[in-house]
Amino acid sequence: MKRLLAAALAACLCAFAPALNAQEGQPLNQLTPQEKELGFELLFDGGPLSPEIWQSSIEGYPVKDGYFVCDKGGNLMTKKAYSDFILRFEFKLPPKGNNGVGIRATSPDLDAAYHGMELQIIDEAYPGLKDAQYHGSIYGVVAAKRGALKPVGEWNYEEVIAIGPYIKVIVNGQLITDADITDAQPIWGDHPGLHNKSGFVGFLGHGDPVEFRNVRILSLEK
User: Fold this and answer.
1) Residue 11 CA to its chain's centroid (Å)
2) Of 50, 33, 22, 41, nearest to 157 (Cα)?
3) Using one digit for the tens of pLDDT, what is the confidence trace for 160-194?
4) CB 217 within 8 A of CB 101
5) Taking the model in full, what pTM does it have?
């Protein structure tokens, strides 16, 4: 596991800086040469969300000008299940916007916050947040560091690395979550999917118009 984690992090870091630097002037919703070499899959090409890639609430995330936006919301999940992976995407929050990244979710129709894991996507000015609810936190389990988000209305770059029990979240170049959930205990109630080995990945909308683009994933399974 340690060898796999080291190799995955090395692959991540060798392409992370070029990906960040290429955001301005790079064609949207395309893999970089480094990502192609590493074997990333493009999950969104700027056109209609593909039912061959996505399932559940496709109609809840209409496409506009090279990004898709949470409208009606709901769970927008991959049709393919992933165990160990690197997920990259960009997002833009409206004031008090709230969404989430669901990982290792048992079903697209169940609440991934409990039947999997939810990594918060949320404006840190959202009222009433507790520690494990701020952006990048594993909802109800692990609190993220704060202060990495750009001002509301600007695009943010996020990378999620999941390898076994190790979960990392990087936002705009800052590592805000670095967790080993082997012995983690949920803060609020039952969490039957916390230690799932594999499952669906996607976005968990609540109707707030959060925007997404440049969504791609690298499976680390051999």
Assistant:
1) 18
2) 22
3) 999 999 999 999 999 999 999 999 999 998 999 99
4) no
5) 0.90
Q: What single DSSP character describes residue 150?
A: P
- Identify the CA nearest to 201 among candidates 38, 12, 55: 55
Measured CA distances, 38 to 79, 184, 213 (Å): 22, 31, 20
Range list of β-strands (E), 43-173: 54-56, 63-64, 67-69, 74-82, 85-92, 98-105, 117-122, 155-163, 166-171
Q: Is there a contact between 73 and 207 (Cβ–Cβ < 8 Å)?
A: yes
Query: Rounded to whole angstroms, how far apart are CA atoms 187 and 50?
Result: 36
Which pLDDT band, with edges at 50, 70 and 90, does 15 fall under? very low
Q: What are phi and psi of 56, to 5 degrees?
A: 75, -120
Rounded distance between C-alpha atoms, residue 170 and residue 164, angstroms: 17
- 120-163 pLDDT per residue, tens: 999 999 999 999 999 999 999 999 999 999 999 999 999 999 99
